[in-house]
Each structure stands twice: as C-alpha cells, then as structure tokens.
C-alpha cells in the first residue's frame, strides 16, 4: 500500500503468503530478487579462506591451546621491573589479551590493518569525532540513525563543528558542500531506516580530491563486514555497532572501528585509551563468540527478509529493501555489497494503521535495534529516531508511518503468517472500527 492510499489490502493474505512462498522456494521470481553478481570480497591481510570460514577460524594464542579464547578478567598485569620492562599489557583500559584477540580477528574480516573495539557503536562514533576541531565541517546524510544525528547535533551546538546534512545518494549534492574546511564525510549505506544507498567509491574520491586530508568514515552497521567492506571502497574509517549483526543475540553492547592507515589507527587508539571506552574482556569474548556464527545467521536472516520483502511488495506496499529490484539504487548497492542484509522498511499510508500492525504482530517483538536472531518490528519515528524532532523528520521526508522490520532466523512461514494477520487485522480495523476484538485481544505477553 503506497503512502496516502486508503483501500485495505486483499483479505486472503494467508493464501497469498502461501503462493508467494511456493514461488520463492523454487527461486523463481524472474530473476528479480537475486543479485546478478554481488560485489566480490577481496581477501587481504593474510586471509586464506572464504569469509564465512575466516569468521569461524581463529589462530590460538593461548598457552594451553584453549579452543575458546580465555577471558582475561584482570584489570592489571604484573610487570618485571619498575622501568617499564615487562609484558605486552599493563592495564586493561590500555589493552587486554581477550580484546586484542578479538581486534585481530575483526581486522582480518574487515580487510583492515587495525581494528579497535569499544563499548558501543555510539562510543565508536564518539572516538571518530574526537578527530574534529572547532571550525571543522562535516558532511553527512539526511537519513541517519537517530543517535548519530543526536551526537552530530550536540557537536554542532556545543563543539563548534559545522554539520551539513545532504542527500548522500547524490554525489553532486556532497560535492557542492565540500570545502577546504571539510574534515569529515560521514556515510551510512544503507541508511537507517530509509535504506538509501551512497556511492561510497564516488563520494570517497570526490572528497579526497576536494581535500586530501578529509576523512571518509562509513557506518557499516546495516550490513556487517560479511556483506560490505567500505575500506575496500575508498573509505578511511569504517565503524559499526557490534550490538547488531556482529554479536547477533542482543546480549551485549559494542562498537568496532577499523582502518588501514597506521597513523589514523594510533590516533583512534589514543582516544580509546585516554577516554577509557575500550570493550571489557567479557564483552570482547561474547562478541568473538557471536562473530563466529555471523555467516549462518546472516544467510537465514537474509533469505527470510527477502521472502518478507517480496510478500509485502506483492501486496502493494512501498517496501524499501536492496534485495528488491524496485529499489532505486539496486545496481549501485550490488556493485558494493554481497548481500541485502535483513532490515527493511515499508509504509502503510496511515500512522494509526502502522501502530496497529506493530502492536498486533505477536512473533515480532516491538523493539529497537536489529541484526539479532529474533525478529523485531518498530516505528522509527516513535522509537529509534524519536530523538530527531518532528520538524526535522518532516524536512528530511522521514515518513511518520514507516514500519521497520528486522528479520531474524525463525521459520519464515511463521513470520509471514503472523505479519500478514497483523496487517489484515489492522486494515480491517481501520475500515470497520467497531470490530475491536478479532485479533488484538491476545497480547504479545500471551506468547
Ligand atoms: C546505523 C547505526 N549506527 C550506530 C548505532 C549505534 O550503535 P550502539 O547502539 O551500539 O551504540 C546504531 C544503533 O544504535 C545504528 O543503527
Ligand atoms: N533509546 C535509544 C534508542 C536506540 S535505537 C537502536 C538502534 N540503532 C536502532 O536503530 O534501532 C537512544 O535514544 O539512543
């Protein structure tokens, strides 16, 4: 149902689900939904195997060859002398063996010479923004995660940084605001939640041409290193929220930064040590454990997401997902990435209907975040992006009725069945408001 439409979707949702299901099982959707040739992964930094293998494979550094790297739950490390002689570590804020093991593993997967892990995705962005000085200019998107927007707004208000929000799907729009004062271009691709795609190679090259010292930083949270490696596409820094796909179970908060320039890596490390945001040993261990299953999780999450996107689109909804040919930047996306991820959004044309859908779905938890094994449903304008004020949301054309789905690894028929019932019920309710108890009486808690 595209924005503004008022007619409800067809009644026989379950039948439609089944017919879409049959078609998809045969992967017979006129080639619409399979990428022609996904961007290749370019193995570097000693990687010997395919990425899915490298995710699992880690060299043991443990004296007992433990299969699972130990959690060095120690704040301090004894030294051999008072004059600085001693081991590699002195204090966990400065470095910890469990964290180092994770960082080396991530550097390999992210095609980086150095990766660093911190206490959250926002912590990673904060470390990056410490590279800025008052008077510097930042160019970024007009669709951004709400927390990113909030931190940039804070820096613009309190830190003397000038922030330009432009449509980063248009490299010319970026070029127009570049100046000798541009210190950073900050991209999300795909964006959260409008799933807009930036041409990372093009934006990187025009940025570096305009100002060789400007840094291109890319937030890769929406895809993970399994599906896209921005450092290979011209970016100087890639960062992501490890809270999402990398960990995959919503049981920790983490942020990851990766670079290929050693001097830049040192600057970032300096801030992490100076400000004390390095990831704890236990969370480092948990994240390492999560990363090992990224390949299988992502495979299932993406195939589920594809089915759901096709289903919604086949019922007339405006669906934003780079796995659909209808995505306006489908070819660009697949020239940079090896998958579409498992986050999609769609509009209903009516905020109340959207709210009803979100609240009626039982299997889909109403929750912020994404990349987790269980499926989530949310209304960004009320939740993850509520910190962007309503006026700004309207100026940036963020639809109030937009629903974001973050698809997990459940049985896809269950997900489709639950979603289609929630959708049918909500449109039915809008049309015949006097029927109140057909479906909504069983709350999520009843599950
Ligand atoms: C695209 C994106 N970047 C960064 C973040 C920040 O990550 P974290 O919640 O781990 O701080 C989030 C979500 O929170 C996000 O969606
Ligand atoms: N209350 C939090 C909301 C976190 S949103 C998390 C995630 N990035 C998402 O997009 O769902 C906040 O204000 O930061």
TrEMBL record:
For this record, the Gene Ontology CC terms, alphabetical, are:
cytoplasm
Q: Give one GO molecular function term.
A: pyridoxal phosphate binding
Name any Gene Ontology BP term. Answer: transsulfuration
Kindly list the cofactors needed: pyridoxal 5'-phosphate
Instruction: List keywords of the entry alphabetically.
Output: Amino-acid biosynthesis, Lyase, Methionine biosynthesis, Pyridoxal phosphate
> Is Amino-acid biosynthesis one of the keywords UniProt gives this record?
yes
Give the enzyme's main class according to its UniProt record, as a single word.
lyase
EC numbers, comma separated = 4.4.1.13
Which InterPro entries does the protein's record reference?
Answer: Cys/Met-Metab_PyrdxlP-dep_enz, Cys_b_lyase_euk, Cys_met_metab_PP, PyrdxlP-dep_Trfase, PyrdxlP-dep_Trfase_major, PyrdxlP-dep_Trfase_small
Q: What Pfam families does UniProt report for this protein, alphabetically?
A: Cys_Met_Meta_PP
Which reaction(s) does its UniProt entry say it catalyses?
Answer: L,L-cystathionine + H2O = L-homocysteine + pyruvate + NH4(+); an S-substituted L-cysteine + H2O = a thiol + pyruvate + NH4(+)
Concerning CDD domains, the annotation shows:
CGS_like
Region labeled Disordered — which residues?
1-47
Q: In which pathway does it act?
A: Amino-acid biosynthesis; L-methionine biosynthesis via de novo pathway; L-homocysteine from L-cystathionine: step 1/1
- In-chain residues carrying the UniProt-annotated modification N6-(pyridoxal phosphate)lysine: 244
**PANTHER family, per this entry?**
CYSTATHIONINE BETA-LYASE (PTHR11808:SF50), TRANS-SULFURATION ENZYME FAMILY MEMBER (PTHR11808)
Family listed: Belongs to the trans-sulfuration enzymes family.
Q: Which protein are we looking at?
A: Cystathionine beta-lyase
Q: Which organism is it from?
A: Mytilinidion resinicola
Source organism phylogeny: Eukaryota, Fungi, Dikarya, Ascomycota, Pezizomycotina
């Amino acid at each position: 149902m595209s924005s503004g439409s008022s007619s409800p979707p067809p009644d026989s949702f379950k039948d439609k689900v089944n017919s879409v299901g049959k078609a998809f099982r045969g992967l017979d959707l006129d080639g619409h939904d399979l990428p022609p040739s996904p961007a290749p992964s370019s193995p570097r930094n000693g990687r010997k195997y395919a990425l899915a293998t490298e995710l699992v494979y880690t060299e043991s550094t443990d004296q007992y060859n433990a299969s699972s790297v130990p959690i060095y739950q120690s704040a301090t490390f004894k030294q051999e002398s008072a004059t600085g002689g001693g081991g590699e570590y002195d204090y966990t804020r400065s470095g910890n063996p469990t964290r180092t093991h994770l960082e080396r593993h991530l550097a390999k997967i992210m095609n980086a010479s150095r990766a660093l892990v911190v206490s959250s995705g926002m912590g990673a962005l904060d470390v990056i923004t410490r590279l800025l000085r008052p008077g510097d200019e930042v160019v970024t998107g007009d669709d951004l995660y709400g927390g990113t927007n909030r931190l940039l707004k804070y820096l613009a208000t309190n830190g003397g940084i000038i922030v330009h929000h432009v449509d980063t799907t248009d490299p010319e729009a970026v070029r127009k605001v570049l100046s000798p004062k541009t210190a950073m271009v900050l991209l999300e691709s795909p964006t959260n939640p409008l799933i807009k795609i930036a041409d990372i190679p093009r934006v990187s090259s025009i940025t570096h041409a305009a100002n060789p010292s400007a840094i291109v930083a890319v937030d890769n949270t929406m895809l993970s290193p399994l599906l896209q490696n921005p450092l290979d596409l011209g970016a100087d820094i890639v960062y992501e929220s490890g809270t999402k796909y990398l960990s995959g179970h919503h049981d920790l908060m983490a942020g990851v930064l990766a670079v290929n320039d050693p001097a830049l890596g040192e600057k970032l490390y300096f801030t992490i040590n100076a400000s004390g945001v390095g990831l704890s040993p236990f969370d480092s261990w948990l994240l390492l454990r999560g990363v090992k299953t990224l390949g299988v999780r992502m495979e299932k999450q993406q195939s589920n997401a594809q089915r759901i996107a096709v289903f919604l689109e086949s019922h007339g909804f405006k669906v934003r997902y780079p796995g659909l040919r209808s995505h306006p930047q489908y070819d660009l996306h697949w020239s940079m990435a090896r998958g579409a991820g498992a986050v999609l959004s769609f509009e209903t044309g009516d905020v109340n209907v959207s709210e009803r859908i979100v609240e009626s779905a039982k299997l889909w938890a109403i929750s912020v975040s994404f990349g987790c094994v269980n499926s989530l449903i949310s209304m960004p304008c009320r939740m993850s992006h509520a910190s962007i004020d309503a006026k700004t949301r309207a100026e940036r054309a963020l639809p109030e009725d937009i629903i974001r789905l973050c698809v997990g690894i459940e049985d896809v028929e269950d997900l489709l069945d639950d979603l289609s019932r929630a959708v049918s019920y909500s449109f039915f309710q809008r049309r015949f408001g006097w029927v109140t108890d057909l479906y909504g009486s069983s709350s999520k808690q009843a599950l």
